[in-house]
Amino acid sequence: MDKKTEENLKDGRIKILSPLEFHFEASDREDETYLVDLSYYKGSGACWCEHFRFRIEPKLKSGEILPHEEGSQCKHILQARSILADKVIQASMERLSG
Questions:
Q1: pLDDT in tens, 38-94
Q2: 95: how many CB neighbours lie within 10 A of its CB?
Q3: Under DSSP, is residue 21 helix (H, G, I), strand (E, B) or coil?
Q4: What is the pTM of this model?
Q5: Which of 17, 58, 56, 55 is nearest to 38 (CA)?
Q6: How far is CA 72 from the centre of its chain?
Q7: CA-based torsion, 20, 46, 48, 7: positive or negative
Q8: Which end of the chain, N or C, is less surrounded by CB atoms within 10 Å?
Q9: 8 Å CB contact between 14 and 24
Q10: Pair 12, 22: CB distance under 8 Å
Q11: Which of 65, 78, 77 is nearest to 37 (CA)?
Q12: What is the per-residue pLDDT across 10-39, written as a single tens digit (0 to 9) for each?
């Protein structure tokens, strides 16, 4: 996991609410937050940011793009998926090493 993401997790700008739910503070406005839920769209994820809700989600709903295809996820979803993957990999490595 990159240093900035680790710092954002430590200072609460990114919160892991459950294995599939993440809470992000907007990068430019501290009073604005976005929920990412990776259980939506067959595990591709949904976000409550404007980019996802107004640009990406209409295309998913119309079938113009499919879940997991390029362009079906905003930066928050991609980051949440990366965090989840890093945590799964780390836990797996710890179990393997005993």
A1: 999 999 999 999 999 999 999 999 999 999 999 999 999 999 999 999 999 999 999
A2: 8
A3: strand
A4: 0.92
A5: 17
A6: 12
A7: positive
A8: C
A9: yes
A10: no
A11: 77
A12: 999 999 999 999 999 987 777 899 999 999
Beta-carbon count within 10 A of 72 CB? 20
- 20: buried, middle or exposed (CB in 10 Å: 19+, 13-18, 0-12)? middle
What is the residue whose two structure tokens read 């295309």? Answer: 59
What does each C-alpha distance from 22 to 1, 9, 47, 53, 94 come to in angstroms?
16, 10, 9, 16, 23
In angstroms, rounded to a whole number, what is the distance separating the alpha carbons of residues 94 and 14? 24
